[in-house]
Specification:
Cobalamin biosynthesis protein CobD, Cobalamin_biosynth_CobD/CbiB, membrane, 2 strands, ABC-type vitamin B12 transporter activity, cobalamin biosynthesis
Amino acid sequence: MLNPSGRGTVPAGLLAAGLAVAPWVLLAMWLLAVLPVWAGWVLSVSGLYLAIALRSLREHARAVSLPLQAGDLLRAREQVARIVSRDTRALDAEGVARAATESVLENGADALFASLFWFLVAGLPGVVAHRLINTLDAMWGYRTPRYLAFGRVAARLDDLLNWVPARLTALGYALAGDTARALRCWRRQAPHWKSPNAGPVMAAGAGALGLQLGGVAIYHGEQQKRPLLGEGATPDAHAPLAAIRLVQRSLWCWLLATLMLAVWL
């Protein structure tokens, strides 16, 4: 039985995470070692393509935005429920738009930029390790008594792996939008957000878009009063698509920066 206080659970959590992640990372390393160079590059690029989720993120944003634009709130709620963990049944149109926009901004970091970062740092093994830890955090990170031991370790490992990518993502959002406002919101608002990585990403993203996100949300039947993020208008039906465009512009910024660095080196 798990210790309700969570004491003494770190070794169990580390062991579980290690058993879930290490074999696949070692397999990726072994394949790259035994395959010809060209085949290793094909495998690495294919793995990166499968890991990043820009197309999926864009499709989810459209699936929420288009019903909202058509006035179909029920359909929009059904679609946003697929990408957020909060209770969506009582959300109005603004609440649905806010939830979808926040999800796009946060997943732009988790499902796109972090994978690119770890690919540049450690190749395919880095991508595999990051995506698996991120998946374990999504599965175990909600600290129910059943998953207490595993959830805490998975969440901390995910925070660690995403610390640098999240801040690069926030900087990318700032460069791709209203830079001054994004940086101001990041500096002033991010420290008040519960997640050390989601705070900078969403504060900078909201500021870059000129939107106000955050506020009250219901998770697992409990109302949570979250800090406000960003400045400006409340999200509307077009906000999720605006967030996707910001993610895409930020991606081009970092791809250009990476290319320039590669040429310079």
